[in-house]
Amino acid sequence: MLHSQLTTLHTVSLILQLLAERPGLSAESLLEGSGIRLADLQHPDFRISTNQEMRVCANAREHCQSLGLELGRRMHVSSYGALGYTLISSATLGDALQRALEFPALLGTYFELSLVHEGERVWLQAAGYRDQAELETFNTEFCLASMKLICDDLLGRSLPLIGAQFTHAAPAYEAQYRHSFPCTRQFEAPRNAFAFAAEWLEQRLPLADPVTHCDMLARCRQINQEFTSRQSLVMRCRQLLAAQLEAPPGLDGLASQLHCSSRSLRRHLHDAGSSYQSLLDELRYARARHLLEQGELPIYRIAEAMGYSETASFRHAFQRWSGQPPSRFRA
Known about the structure:
By secondary structure, the chain is α+β, with helices and mostly antiparallel strands. It has helices at about 10-20, 25-30, 50-60, 65-70, 80-90, 95-100, 105, 135-155, 175-180, 210-240, 250-255, 260-270, 275-295, 300-305, 310-320, 325-330, and strands spanning about 5, 50, 110-120, 120-125, 165, 185, 195. α10 (about 210-240) crosses α13 (about 275-295) and α14 (about 300-305) crosses α15. β5, α9 (about 175-180) and β6 form a beta-alpha-beta unit.
């Protein structure tokens, strides 16, 4: 099942709106280390990497531990563009959920979503999390709360839940779970999922329209194909750069390795919402964090491993990426 390494700015914009009124908290501080500029938010078609999105989420979660639930309760089905309208125009709830699972790249999930039938109930399950471990609880809350809201939007009423399970321990803000999951909740459970009566899958949707559905489904397939090819290019660039961090080839060198012109590579990366420098920074930051966490190499050696001839340049770059110097991050 294909998952995209690229996504839209929708979640980032939602975070800025959600936390905009918190005293002493600026949009710039929430974007710190992500490589996203405020000006980028004015371009709805702009694409960012999922790592950039998660950087903003990590920044925001320092100020709002229940951020996953808060965001999930605001990600209405209309937030998903063509996919959202494909779901809205589906014949039944079951049809809509199957379409959602068909396009995980457009859904923007970090999980393998599935419908698990158990007798007269069905569980919408989120498994196979594959991103930053420290954000797993956040992403679980965000995923399941948003999927519950999608179901509610599609039906035009709240989907009655039978139960909800979460693999993580009950957080201090457990009471807030009742807004999205007004049912029996179990923590430290064997799965992340919520359950409802299987008969709801046959429920006709109030805005079903076969003509619109056909048109929007074709659009989803087209967008998914674009995401696929963009992802393939970005992943290939990332793989090549990761193997050359000590001596990055530069844009011209990378283009030569990909057998294309520098101009073509720059344009394709731009269309994918990326750039040579942003990919290099992303890889350097991830590698630097790994080496700093190991605590074995001195900082000047880490700078060399990142391709920096001067330690001061590495310190400055790491400060820009993370908002703190490498010595403080290690401490």
